[in-house]
Specification:
Length: 237
């Protein structure tokens, strides 16, 4: 099971710190692609056109392969802003998230160490705000298991499985079936309004065994779930 963390979609998460008269405003947003991240950065720049610095960091990926990382000091001394911000995101295992910290200079120089602490603390404050508003989500790789259910029983099966804690991600009515023409042997697809498929997400091996037991009991042994793929599934922390 691969596990990573991100922020849920929704309004931009914000936090503000004041350090020696400089204001540091942190903005966090979920971004699925590098293009999304750069668009978000442009939005924050447009929101604060007179700020001295707009420092950024983002990580893009699903947590199961390569994660693309980018950061920018935007005029601050090299390594004092973007890199510390990125280190916070990386340290928390966050993916598909972009952080922008806007600085309004207050007239007092903070020094290299002071800048590193300030930009680090700004992102930490943003993540604390995300945690308080329940915007941090875990993202895990799960197996998808499907089972064909009689149309007359699908409502009862769905309620029973959900009641037992099974994570049902979809109920597909009128699923596509392969139909073979007896004269030509040609295979075509059609939708059968009486065919229904329940799709469950399984994160651990033991859950798959439980699903099989539940389906066997519901169907009196006439149905058996089958594995149909994998996907990233989110759940709130």
């Amino acid at each position: 099971m691969d596990l990573s963390y991100g922020v849920s979609s929704g309004a931009t998460i914000t936090a503000e710190l004041e350090i020696k008269r400089s204001r540091f405003l942190c903005y966090l947003q979920r971004t699925e692609t590098e293009h999304d991240a750069r668009e978000f950065i442009a939005e924050i720049r447009h929101l604060h056109p007179t700020a001295r610095h707009h420092c950024t960091a983002f990580r893009i990926g699903e947590g199961t392969g390569e994660v693309r990382e980018r950061s920018s000091d935007d005029g601050e001394p090299s390594g004092t802003a973007g890199s510390p911000m990125l280190a916070v995101l990386r340290g928390e295992g966050l993916v598909n998230v972009c952080a922008v910290v806007v600085r309004y200079f207050g007239g007092v120089l903070l020094g290299t160490g002071g800048l590193v602490r300030a930009y680090t603390d700004a992102v930490v404050a943003g993540l604390a705000a995300a945690q308080q508003t329940k915007r941090i989500v875990s993202r895990r790789s799960v197996e998808l298991w499907s089972v064909e259910a009689p149309i007359a029983d699908v409502g009862r099966w769905e309620a029973d499985l959900r009641g037992r804690g099974i994570d049902l991600v979809d109920v597909i009515y009128g699923v596509g079936l392969d139909v073979v023409c007896p004269e030509t042997g040609e295979v075509s697809r059609r939708r059968d309004p009486l065919a229904t498929v329940l799709v469950a997400a399984v994160a651990q091996r033991g859950e798959a065994e439980l699903l099989q037991e539940y389906i066997s009991a519901l169907s009196a042994g006439s149905r058996e779930p089958y594995r149909t793929g994998r996907k990233m599934r989110e759940c709130q922390q």
